[in-house]
């Protein structure tokens, strides 16, 4: 709960014996303040501010001594400040850093740094990262980062290991890889809090209560004269905090794969269905045993109930199917919540915490959707607010089980805490801490499920257990939610290879599930949302790479625009592109119409009222003869707007109507591809194939060579058949139209309507 002044006292001794006497005086003065002041006051807030002044006094006293070297922490801050302007330097490398993000370029601001050997396997790093994530959710205006200290001998290996760590722990803050050692900083992991690169506050205890750091941040933030409006807009309620957190930047290559950290899986034995947590894509994929995708839950990272298409989650993990209710319980890990998906009605709701929505009419709804709602529009149960840091709160859950007494057993990833949630009341009944105590309550269920692991290949178990097990009691327990039984098969997720495996218990044959009907997943949220949604935060999701632009000068009227898309060489479509993977929008003096979905226009102009009556007539015909209407609808279900010719090109039709003036047509499409099986790929090595995939994906974003090499290393070491890897290649086309006035008829009164057609060639 307090700042650890012992670390501040010890630092000068390791630097120079000259400072030993001054350090001793500082230590004595500190102990005096502790004995005479802290006992009387007894409040952490005063303790934080007092020790903040201590750090200032200590820094000034050292600076006045010309013979003593500067503090290692001051040197560290100078090193960070000097490294902000370059992604890579003589002794530093930035990972998970968006160079276009100007937030980290501020000399004046509040920073929280997790510094030390982040790859040390002897300690549970998940706990350190979870505390930092909680602070990040609570204080979106603060700059967070991690620093790993390495040496030249292992710098290449540390890069790859840090990349895996960023992916598995879902780190959204940048990580600085330093080849420069700093005394008393490169050993144990420490939290360092500072403002304006001055007066660092150091926390060293592994079991540090995060409330002390939070209060220190509050005291530093209150010194700001004006808080950013962008932060205010996104911090009205706790539920909007998650939307203000930027997504992880480094693994953008992995984001474009079909699966991105498939964390957990469960099954419906009766319905022959599987529920896969595509964790870092923030969605649940429902598919058959054959691999055919049936449905998807979740559309965008956030916290929102509703239909599957509009519901939001943040890193869903463990799932549990309830056959009686035909619903799926989902652990919404980084929202610290438990959700329930009704499979029949396709609606997602929150079980815990209790979400209380106060309806205030249409205007309140509009303001809430714009992120401008008042604090009391949507409230979350106070026991689960991250800013409270209550020991009973559900924080970063991972696994889920169900007891006979209608209660849920929710466990965190490291099996250090168990929450028992009552389904009827939606409240936490009991919190159990410690692996041994957890096994006493649900050990039988866990042991029965883990007994299936003996049928799995030992090499796979070693590969999966090593990176995610953070305790020594029973490492295989970390795989509790990573596999399930369905019929004669054991289906398991493979986070190292970003795939799902199927093992036949009788024959022992193991194969990777080949997914089909991938078009039902639609256009990924990180492609089309940034185009029209205005983010209040400057570091919102970036707009993807622009594939093609073209300007056209045509007469107003109907224009049939056809896009001829040439996919990258040595690739093939996984399956024909579906309309759900295409997004069109028109701007200006232009409107989009579907050749299949719109009725044939009459030769004469009709008024709005007449059009309304015509629509009523069409509706009456459908009611009178529903069979004929169904036949017509079946004919229009698959319009010829997406075609594929023998030359391998994809053709997308975009018919529009334009009036005189300037306009723009925006077309976005997600092409699900894989490497073609030909002579070139048959003889290629894993590294060459991985490099081909990286080259295809690289133009999408501003990817550095270092990150491309890391992606190649991770993909190559996964030891999977890279020609089966399904990846998504986005297509972003913008066509600008400049239409002149309508041509006049001979009578100078009527206008001549013209029909035009144009083809646009797009090469990806």
Automatic annotation (TrEMBL):
Q: Where is the composition biased (Acidic residues)?
A: 628-638
Query: Region Disordered: start and end of each range?
Result: 626-648
Record protein name field: NHL domain-containing protein
From the broadest rank down, the organism's phylogenetic lineage runs:
Eukaryota, Viridiplantae, Streptophyta, Embryophyta, Tracheophyta
């Amino acid at each position: 709960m307090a700042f650890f002044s012992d670390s501040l006292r010890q630092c000068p001794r390791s630097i120079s014996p000259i400072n030993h006497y001054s350090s001793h005086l500082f230590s004595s003065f500190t102990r005096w303040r502790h004995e005479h002041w802290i006992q009387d006051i007894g409040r952490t807030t005063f303790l934080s501010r007092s020790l903040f002044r201590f750090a200032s006094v200590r820094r000034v006293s050292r600076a006045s001594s010309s013979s003593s070297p500067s503090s290692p922490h001051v040197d560290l801050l100078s090193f960070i400040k000097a490294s902000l302007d370059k992604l890579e330097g003589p002794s530093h490398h930035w990972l998970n850093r968006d160079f276009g993000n100007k937030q980290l370029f501020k000399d004046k601001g509040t920073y929280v740094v997790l510094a030390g050997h982040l790859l040390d396997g002897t300690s549970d790093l998940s706990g350190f990262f979870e505390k930092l994530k909680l602070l990040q959710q609570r204080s979106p205006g603060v700059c967070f980062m991690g620093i790993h200290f390495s040496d030249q001998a292992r710098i290449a290996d540390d890069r790859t290991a840090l990349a895996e760590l960023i992916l598995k722990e879902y780190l959204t803050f940048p990580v600085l890889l330093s080849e420069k050692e700093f005394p008393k900083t490169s050993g144990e992991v420490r939290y360092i809090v500072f403002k304006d690169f001055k007066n660092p506050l150091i926390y060293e205890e592994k079991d540090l209560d995060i409330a002390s750091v939070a209060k220190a941040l509050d005291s530093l933030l209150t010194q700001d004269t004006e808080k950013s409006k962008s932060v205010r807009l996104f911090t009205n309620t706790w539920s909007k905090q998650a939307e203000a957190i930027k997504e992880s930047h480094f693994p953008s290559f992995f984001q474009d794969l079909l699966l991105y950290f498939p964390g957990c899986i469960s099954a419906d034995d009766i319905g022959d269905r599987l529920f896969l947590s595509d964790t870092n894509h923030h969605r649940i994929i429902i598919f058959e045993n054959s691999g055919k995708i049936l449905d998807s839950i979740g559309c965008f990272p956030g916290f929102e109930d509703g239909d599957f298409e509009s519901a939001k989650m943040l890193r869903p993990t463990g799932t549990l199917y309830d056959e009686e209710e035909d619903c799926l319980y989902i652990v919404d890990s980084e929202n610290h919540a438990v959700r329930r998906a009704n499979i029949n009605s396709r609606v997602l709701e929150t079980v815990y915490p209790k979400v209380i929505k106060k309806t205030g009419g249409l205007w309140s709804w509009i303001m809430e959707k714009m992120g401008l709602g008042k604090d009391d529009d949507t409230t979350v149960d106070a026991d689960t607010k991250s800013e409270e840091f209550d020991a009973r709160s559900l924080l970063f859950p991972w696994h889920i089980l169900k007891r006979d007494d209608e209660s849920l057993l929710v466990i965190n990833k490291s099996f250090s805490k168990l929450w028992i949630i009552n389904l009827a009341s939606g409240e936490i009944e009991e919190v159990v801490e410690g692996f041994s105590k957890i096994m006493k309550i649900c050990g039988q269920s866990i042991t029965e499920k883990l007994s299936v692991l003996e049928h799995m290949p030992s090499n796979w178990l070693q590969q999966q257990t090593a990176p995610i097990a953070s305790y020594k009691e029973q490492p295989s327990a970390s795989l509790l939610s990573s596999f399930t039984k369905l019929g004669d098969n054991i289906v398991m997720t493979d986070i190292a290879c970003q795939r799902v495996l199927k093992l036949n218990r009788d024959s022992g044959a193991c194969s990777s599930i080949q997914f089909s009907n991938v078009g039902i997943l639609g256009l990924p949220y990180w492609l089309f949302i940034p185009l029209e949604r205005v983010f209040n935060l400057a570091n919102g999701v970036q707009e993807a790479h622009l594939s093609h632009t073209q300007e056209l000068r045509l007469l107003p009227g109907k224009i049939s625009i056809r896009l001829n898309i040439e996919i990258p060489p040595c690739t093939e479509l996984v399956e024909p592109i579906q309309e759900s993977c295409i997004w069109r929008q028109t701007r200006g003096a232009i409107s989009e119409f579907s050749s299949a979905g719109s009725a044939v226009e009459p030769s004469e102009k009709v008024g709005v009222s007449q059009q309304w009556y015509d629509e009523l007539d069409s509706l009456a015909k459908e009611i009178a003869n529903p069979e004929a209407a169904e036949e017509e609808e079946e004919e229009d279900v698959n319009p010829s707007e997406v075609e594929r010719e023998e030359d391998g090109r994809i053709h997308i039709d975009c018919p529009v109507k334009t009036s005189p003036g300037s306009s723009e047509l925006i077309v976005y499409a997600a092409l699900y591809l894989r490497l073609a099986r030909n002579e070139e790929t048959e003889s290629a090595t894993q590294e060459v194939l991985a490099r081909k995939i990286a080259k295809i994906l690289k133009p999408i974003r501003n990817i550095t060579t270092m990150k491309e090499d890391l992606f190649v290393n991770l993909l190559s070491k996964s030891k999977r058949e890279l020609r089966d890897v399904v990846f998504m290649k986005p297509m972003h086309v913008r066509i600008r139209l400049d239409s002149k006035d309508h041509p006049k008829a001979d009578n100078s009164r009527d206008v001549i309507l013209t029909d035009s057609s144009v083809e646009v060639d797009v090469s990806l």
